[in-house]
Design a protein that fits this description.
homodimer, alpha+beta, Nucleoside Triphosphate Pyrophosphohydrolase, Arc Repressor Mutant, subunit A, 2 domains, 24% helix, 30% strand, DNA-binding
Chain lengths: 225, 225
DNA sequence: TTTACTATGTGTTTGGAGGACGCAAAGGCT
DNA sequence: AGCCTTTGCGTCCTCCAAACACATAGTAAA
């Protein structure tokens, strides 16, 4: 391969992260306000350029922490966006990642020199996004719905201990449909993914719900519905 | 972004295609024999560098036709491989694609100046592959199995008209398990994905099977099993 | 303390889909 | 005409999931 060939020259690799959480009965995603040209002040997905000495996966973790302060969260490659015009500066391919966090980490947001601001947005009320980031978010939402149905990744969106109604809420909010409490409970318990902790909720106005935890906090392909 | 920064300089974007077909009761994939350094003479996946003025998806189509002569086949992005050491020459990220063809196109293989040879291999008897291409094939097989279960992509692996035993064969070969003829038939017909053509097989030694076709030759998410 | 209210936890019924399997039909071959 | 092979069709039976009624555990108000 001729590395000086202008057909290939000056290509760049980028990562962009779509971070989702479920909070306040909404799916929310994390956006940062861009601090440099082009598109200064516009909202974009957190992300950045991949260094030559790191893997793309690692770059995703690093950039996410640098731009938002979030670390140690579930991260999975989503899709690579390769339209030649997607970045006005140069030929830039973006590897998009889907990240999931439970809402207790929502408050850990850190402004950096590279971004003007970072904020959670209801995905139904997104502002205009620069580049092709709106398209990336759309695909991420699709993927999130599939993952919820075909795996146990709900564990990433809930605290260590949670109630069955909370779990059901996550499913209802993301999939946008209601389920029967009793059938949902039976189905999920039969799947064997979660177990009772023996403890119960405290300080509730009504009957306290039992607390459960996921047996394994690791991705597992399972048909939920 | 500083385009001269050595952290980002000299990055390259590549596409690699895993082409599958089902033939002779085996899953086969197409490999080409490399014509240049490094790894001259070794078997690799068909692929090549992405040009600056084309989308990554388009590059996949173009490279596949250039390297093998195959065109107009089902092509889907699989995963992006971004280990910094995966190519000894430079920082090269590879976007891997999964391609599917029906066996009638197996014979259309074209040697080019860029490759010494092109050949179909039983995936259970692959030679050593250069780069990280073995890993790519492994992931592609996994993905193929999932796709077969959760969508109608079987249509890409069969001719326009096919028999139910042929269809069942595709499933059995790829998934590696036997199904009951009568249950498979009932399930697939109930799915409504295929319809009878009214014609039958000809020149068979036994009872000729009815010919079917897929109603829509377009990807559709459906739970098959 | 008694009652009302609300959300959680448990049981029952019922219908449909899928797995196991028997048998008939349509060819070619001897 | 019989035999063999493969395809096509129907039945039984079990299990799972949707639909629904009722009991339980807490707070809040009378």
């Amino acid at each position: 391969m001729d590395m000086k060939n202008p057909k290939y020259k000056n290509q760049g690799i980028h990562v962009d992260m779509v971070v989702f959480t479920v909070d306040d009965k909404k799916i929310k995603t994390l956006l940062v306000q861009r601090g440099r040209k082009p598109f200064v002040g516009e909202w974009i997905l957190p992300g950045g350029a991949v260094y030559n000495d790191e893997s793309v996966d690692f770059a995703a973790e690093r950039e996410l922490e640098e731009k938002t302060g979030l670390k140690d969260l579930y991260l999975e490659q989503l899709h690579t966006f390769g339209n030649p015009k997607r970045d006005p500066r140069k030929r830039m391919v973006s590897v998009a990642y889907l990240a999931l966090v439970d809402k207790k980490k929502v408050s850990i947001l850190q402004k950096t020199s590279k971004t003007l601001d970072a904020k959670w947005f209801d995905i139904k009320k997104l502002p205009d996004l620069a580049f092709d980031h709106k398209e990336i978010v759309r695909l991420a939402v699709k993927s999130l719905r599939k993952m919820l149905i075909y795996s146990n990744i709900a564990y990433t969106l809930l605290p260590c201990q949670f109630t069955l109604p909370e779990l059901q809420g996550v499913y209802e909010i993301i999939l946008g449909e209601k389920f029967d409490r009793r059938n949902f409970r039976r189905k999920f318990l039969n799947l064997g993914l979660i177990e009772a902790t023996g403890k119960r909720e405290e300080g509730m106005a009504n009957r306290p719900a039992n607390l459960y935890r996921f047996k394994a906090k690791k991705y597992k392909a399972v048909d939920i519905l």
